[in-house]
Amino acid sequence: MATSTMTPLSSGTESTELAVEFPDNFLLIDLCGEYDRNLSKLEEKLGVQILRRGNHLVVVGEESAAKETIDVLRALYSRLESGRGIESADIDREVRMGGSERGTAPEAGDQIEMFKGARVEIKTRRKMIEPRTEAQKSYVRSLFENELCFGIGPAGTGKTYLAVAVGVNMFIEGHVDRIILSRPAVEAGEKLGYLPGDMKDKVDPYMQPLYDALNDFLPGKQTAKLIEEKRIEIAPLAFMRGRTLSNAYVVLDEAQNATTMQMKMFLTRLGEGSRMVITGDRTQVDLPRGVASGLADAERLLKSIPKISFNYFTSKDVVRHPLVAAIIEAYDKDFEKG
């Protein structure tokens, strides 16, 4: 177990020297990373200096930043103690979360009731998924707790990725019999003309982001087999008309490109034992000029209905390349000026 002491560098200064002891030297090596790259990343993100002294790490910097760094180091060390590795994304996650989560994740069947104070993890066949921001954690909680859930925010915030991860988790745990993933087949601002091939060949390019997410969580052969057996369906929104989706986990991606009538049609497909997730970005509507977005209408009309959850993300929740967050912020500022 890591222990720490705090020593002011000198009177009259705001800098603090905070030491933390890590008893297992082998885990300490993994904590620091090759050529101390993990420590360098923390120094850059938190504005501190980290020194190695035997089995101690000493954090030098402004007191609040030093304390936060110690919390993050402890969280990462605890991760190593549980047998998991540390990647760049894990460091980013702990910095965003302030190293505040402790303990282990609840068992999959208990996740709905046991989020507070616990590390949230989504178990899939290929990997364990962890929310990397507080908004993502709240979103995952909503996905497990609510039968109808909206995730609204900019690109790169994990809306679809986490929704599909939870769907795979609920499927492999037997809570639903099938997964249905859908999105409107709308071109992103450019006309591509008629695509060759049969119906699957024509719609697959629009569905590719859903295939990508699914392949991250299930082995390729298993995914192909489940699609062949119709236990996983990936289809355009237009294919949902006339169906009642029972005992299914249903995701509508890019919902800002659904019309009002399409959104109403989709929402009314919800059947017994099913869960529905709608994700979208209000700033990326590709509908023809003058056609209202069904996502905006649903948000306006359904907010007052109990058991329907609306979850919002901002550029601070972007978990892609750091430049993506900066790009989104720049466009948002320009939009506000206009």
* Average residue-wise pLDDT: 83
Strand order of the largest sheet: 9-8-10-11-7-12
Count of extended strands: 12
Main pleated sheet: 6 strands, parallel
- Give the overall form: globular
**What order do the helices and strands follow?**
EEHHEEHHEEHEHEHHEEHEHEH
Q: Using the CA coordinates, give the radius of gyration.
A: 23 Å
Low-confidence stretches: 102-117, 188-192
Structure description:
- There is one protein chain.
- The protein is an alpha/beta fold and 338 residues long.
- It has eleven helices and twelve strands.
- The protein has helices at residues 25-32, 37-46, 63-81, 88-97, 134-145, 159-172, 199-217, 220-228, 260-267, 294-302, 322-337, and strands at 3-8, 15-21, 49-53, 56-62, 122-123, 128-129, 148-152, 178-183, 232-236, 248-252, 275-280, 308-312.
- The strands form three sheets. A six-stranded parallel β-sheet has the order 9-8-10-11-7-12, with helices on both faces.
- Helix 9 (260-267) links the parallel strand 10 and strand 11.
- It is globular.
- The N and C termini lie far apart (54 Å).
- Residues 102-117 and 188-192 have low confidence and may be disordered.
